[in-house]
């Protein structure tokens, strides 16, 4: 059922597909184009609650809210000479190939997330989505994990610059949101929460429960490291065992979220076993939490996700639909025109429905107790013990 209380500014520019490391790189920009075509084919952009906007690229002064001037200059040099390797800044490396549009495309994606933050904070819209964003690994002075400029961190920094006093960042990508955590490690105004695959089995090998924030911001970093193989029931159990309680205690004025689709069972770069249906369920949960704790102020980004045809477009279309207040029934067939576009661009068949056929369910950690022999529950309890007392809560 449509929620007429919701409004959405969807930030999109076709030029964002210029964030293209080249053939053979996992970060295939086709996933962005196919997401937007699915959003359009399902009629979401024609809903009166939805405004599609394009913002200018982030300028140097905006990028320097998070990144060093030296690093921004290094990105521009790498774009001018893509053959050069700048290992000190993580450019031209195995993960972060250089290409001529490196700075331009990266700054454009960052600009959409910063503009999304401005629109939400100024009351122009309750919700904003930039599914091309979510590049959460970029560090102040270094590219990392396919990420050049850290657009979620830049959005948060802009919110703080505009006067926000409490911003919550919720990251459900399969990889730890290390760059955002680093940017606000010692800032008590920002709560960073990351659910991700265990650092023992996945890049970037950070995100332990013991990482809880700097000396002036203890408890403002929360990391829940999930065992490889975790599926829908465990992933949802972990999310609900931590995120709602922390947000209620922190009382954010705005929520920024990152929805990497690489938690999916078919993702080629990771080892969780989540479905599109569970990813949709978490987007709905964050939507509700924004209304419960942040007066509806919610900025959502994309992130990782390397099952370019089968997963990413459906997951992020559900995200857009949820934020628009016009959720798409999972049983909905994908439009024929979209399936034709998938084949035209990839020569692969498209998924036929907006569901993986799963019915997400989980046992509540708070109601049923925990199993001390269960690896997932061990991870949940470790994070709760590390973080909740810092907020006056009982783990």
TrEMBL record:
Listed name of the protein: Acetoin utilization protein AcuC
Sequence similarity: Belongs to the histone deacetylase family.
Pathway: Ketone degradation; acetoin degradation
InterPro entries per record: AcuC, HDACs, His_deacetylse_dom, His_deacetylse_dom_sf, Ureohydrolase_dom_sf
Source organism, top-level taxon: Bacteria
Pfam family, one: Hist_deacetyl
Keywords: Acetoin catabolism
Domain Histone deacetylase: 25-322
Coiled coil: none
Organism (species): Kitasatospora phosalacinea
């Amino acid at each position: 059922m449509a929620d007429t209380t919701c409004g959405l500014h969807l930030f999109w520019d076709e030029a964002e597909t210029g964030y293209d490391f080249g053939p053979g790189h996992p970060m295939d920009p086709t996933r962005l184009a196919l997401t937007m075509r699915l959003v359009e084919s399902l009629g979401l952009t024609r809903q009166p609650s939805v405004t599609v906007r394009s913002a200018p690229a982030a300028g140097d002064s905006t990028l320097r809210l998070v990144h060093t001037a030296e690093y921004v200059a290094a990105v521009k040099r790498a774009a001018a000479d893509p053959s050069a390797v700048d290992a000190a800044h993580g450019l031209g490396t195995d993960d972060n190939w250089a290409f001529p549009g490196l700075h331009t495309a990266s700054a454009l994606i960052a600009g959409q997330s910063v503009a999304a933050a401005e629109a939400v904070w100024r009351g122009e819209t309750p919700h904003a989505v930039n599914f091309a964003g979510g590049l959460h690994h970029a560090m102040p002075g270094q590219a990392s994990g396919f990420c050049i400029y850290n657009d979620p961190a830049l959005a948060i920094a802009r919110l703080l610059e505009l006067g926000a006093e409490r911003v919550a960042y919720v990251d459900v990508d399969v990889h730890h949101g290390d760059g955002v955590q680093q940017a606000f490690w010692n800032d008590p105004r920002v709560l960073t929460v990351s659910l991700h695959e265990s650092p023992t089995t996945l890049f970037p090998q950070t995100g332990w429960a013991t990482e809880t924030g700097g000396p002036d911001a203890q408890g403002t970093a929360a990391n829940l490291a999930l065992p490889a193989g975790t599926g829908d029931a465990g992933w949802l159990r972990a999310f609900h065992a931590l995120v709602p309680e922390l947000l209620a205690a922190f009382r954010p004025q705005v929520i920024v979220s990152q929805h990497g689709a690489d938690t999916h069972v078919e993702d080629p770069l990771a080892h969780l076993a989540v479905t599109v249906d569970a990813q949709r369920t978490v987007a709905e949960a964050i939507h509700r939490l924004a209304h419960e704790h942040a007066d509806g102020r919610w900025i959502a980004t994309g992130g990782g996700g390397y099952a370019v045809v089968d997963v990413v477009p459906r997951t992020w279309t559900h995200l857009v639909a949820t934020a628009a207040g016009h959720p798409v029934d999972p049983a909905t067939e994908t439009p024929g025109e979209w399936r034709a576009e998938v084949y035209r661009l990839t020569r692969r068949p498209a998924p036929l429905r907006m569901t993986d056929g799963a019915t997400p369910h989980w046992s509540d950690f708070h109601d049923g107790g925990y199993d001390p022999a269960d690896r997932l529950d061990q991870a949940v309890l470790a994070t709760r013990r590390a973080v909740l007392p810092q907020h006056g809560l009982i783990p």
